[in-house]
Amino acid sequence: MRDLRPTISWLLLAMVGVVGAGAAVLGISQAPSNVPLAKAVANTLAARNYSQVLTESTPQGKQADYLVFQAPDRLGGYVQSGTKRTYVYVIGTTEYQSLTVSPSAPTTKLVLYRQASQGAKLLDPVRNYLNYVHEAKHVTQSGSNYSFSLTQQGQVGKFVVTVSGKYVTQVLLTVQGASVQLVVSQFGSSPPVALPAGAKVVAAPSGAAG
After folding, report:
1. Is residue 55 part of a domain?
2. What's the pLDDT score for residue 152?
């Protein structure tokens, strides 16, 4: 079963997504006043819930992840890759994942495979990416955008973090051959994370990758 954590070297491309991300991006330039980056990171991580869209571009193609994080221990949504979709949920210490299905497949017919999980906070893409802000040594600011670079395992990752009002609303990451756009929105107003009504839950096959 797919691990929700990022997977491209230390840059860690992860999961993401929220309908209406364009509106969230437009709101960036309209914010009346922004808090400093460190405060925005703290506010974002303290929010009781938020929606996120992570779009990954690699030589193998593009993938979009659509997730909601709900404090203290829920994460859920789906991964869209081409014309296929995989539903994923983490509730407490349990992960649920569907087989890959068509986007038109009814969620009431899903079969979700259950296995132990490390927990929503450790698998949350927003937390994974905002951790890099704490590692940054030289951050430059231009309006609402904060830029810095980090090097690890011979790779240079260039980050641009956007603050809108009280929160971080976008993270852009580029590295040779790959890029990530993470859009965060609906702070405190995201839909609740719950398994789809009607979905069947079964134990994951013995030896399934976590």
Report:
1. yes
2. 85
Model-wide pTM > 0.90: no
The count of structural domains within the chain is 1
Give the pLDDT score at 206: 73
Q: Is residue 1 part of a domain?
A: no
Quote the distance between the C-alpha of residue 131 and its chain's center.
13
Q: Which DSSP string do the residues of the chain spell out, in sequence order?
A: ---SS--SGGG-------TTHHHHHHHHTT-S----HHHHHHHHHHSSEEEEEEEEEETTEEEEEEEEEETTTEEEEEEEETTEEEEEEEETTEEEEEPPB-TTS-GGG-EEEEEE-S-HHHH-HHHHHHHHHHH-SS-EEETTEEEEEEEETTEEEEEEEEEETTEEEEEEEEETTEEEEEEEE-TTTPPPP-PPTT-EEEEPPTT---
What pLDDT does residue 208 have? 56
Angle between helices 125-135 and 37-46 (to 10 degrees): 150
- Range with the poorest average pLDDT among 24-38, 119-133, 137-151: 24-38
pLDDT mean over 114-124: 94
Q: Please report whether residue 3 resides in a domain.
A: no
* Residue from 74, 54, 70 nearest 62 by CA: 54
Q: Decide: 165 and 33 in contact? Cβ < 8 Å.
A: yes
